[in-house]
Design goal:
With about 260 residues, this protein is α/β, with parallel strands linked by helices. The protein has eight helices and seven strands. The protein starts with 6 loop residues before the first strand and ends in a 6-residue tail after the last helix. The structure holds NADP nicotinamide-adenine-dinucleotide phosphate (NAP). The site of NADP nicotinamide-adenine-dinucleotide phosphate has 30 residues, from helix 1 and helix 4.
Length: about 260
């Protein structure tokens, strides 16, 4: 894949995985739009990229606002040309024990993790369909596969993202648009920082970024990593429910 002629929109690019992907892709020659809410951080990252000779544009926008995301996509197109790759990465996490659910908090998470992804896709799908090429990438999670303890909000949001993208794949692949669903395990970012519970096979950010870029370049339909945790999660999918419940209750990833 020749990144030098690609324009990429990365949401959630002010920190963690999104920031890592944006920096790496500009290093490989892509022009990247960095979308997130924290404008100051975005401008700092863009300045760093430009100082290293890369092409980048800060797009300080909230993904929950469909109109603003559309405007951001238009700005990126005006600056560098039509968007070739969308990486819908912006997301938040929340511990939600079933006995202590707060409707507004959960709605807020769903709004970012699900509606934000839908806003990002709808902002770029028209252009990609017209040109008959492009790639949509979702940063979902291994938490999408089955419900985990104290994670009803997060798991359901990621299950929604994966299902949304799977449906898109069926519709868009025949139109020349690749759809890639990434299911990462635990990665060292602000999202996992400070968590005291076990995080098996916790990965360094740089290693995760390298794996995600590889999957995008291969235009993988789905990619789950690290393989050890992905294998355990896949085993959970075919387990009888009583066995799944017994094991899951004893292995909470949230305190
Ligand atoms: N870290 C992990 O272990 C892990 C594992 C599996 C999947 N993931 C997924 O990977 C994605 C990135 O997470 P991360 O670990 O890199 O966490 P992170 O460092 O906290 O980054 C989250 C990014 O999302 C952005 N964001 C949050 N709300 C937003 C909003 N309303 N509008 C626009 N941008 C928003 C944040 O920017 P602003 O605050 O500046 O808006 C930030 O750039 C998430 O979807 C997460 O669920 C992470």
């Amino acid at each position: 894949m020749d990144w030098a002629d690609k324009v990429v929109l990365v949401t959630g690019a002010s920190s963690g995985i999104g920031r890592g992907l944006a920096v790496e892709l500009t290093r490989r020659g892509a022009a990247v739009g960095l979308l997130a809410r924290r404008a100051e951080l975005l401008h700092e990252i863009v300045a760093e990229i430009q100082a290293a000779g890369g092409r980048a544009l800060a797009l300080p926008v909230d993904v929950t606002n469909a109109g603003s995301v559309r405007d951001a996509a238009d700005q990126l197109t005006a600056a560098f040309g039509p968007i070739d790759v969308l990486i819908a990465n912006a997301g938040v996490a929340l511990t939600t024990p079933g006995t202590e659910l707060i409707a507004e908090e959960i709605a807020g998470l769903i709004n970012v993790n699900v509606v934000g992804v839908i806003n990002s896709v709808t902002a770029v799908v028209g252009g990609m369909t017209e040109r008959g090429r492009g790639q949509m990438v979702a940063i979902s999670s291994l938490a999408a596969y089955r419900g985990l303890p104290k994670s009803a909000a997060y798991c359901s949001s990621k299950a929604a993202v994966s299902a949304f993208f799977e449906s898109l794949r069926l519709d868009l692949e025949p139109k020349g648009i690749a759809v890639t669903i990434i299911h990462p395990g635990f990665i060292k970012t602000a999202l996992t920082a400070g968590r005291k519970s076990q995080m098996p096979y916790l990965m360094e950010l740089d290693d995760a970024v390298e794996k995600i870029v590889w999957a995008i370049e291969k235009r993988k339909k789905t990619y789950a990593f690290p393989w050890q945790l992905a294998t355990i999660v896949r085993a959970g999918m075919v387990m009888p429910t009583f066995m799944y419940d017994w094991i899951s209750r004893r292995n909470s990833f949230r305190e």
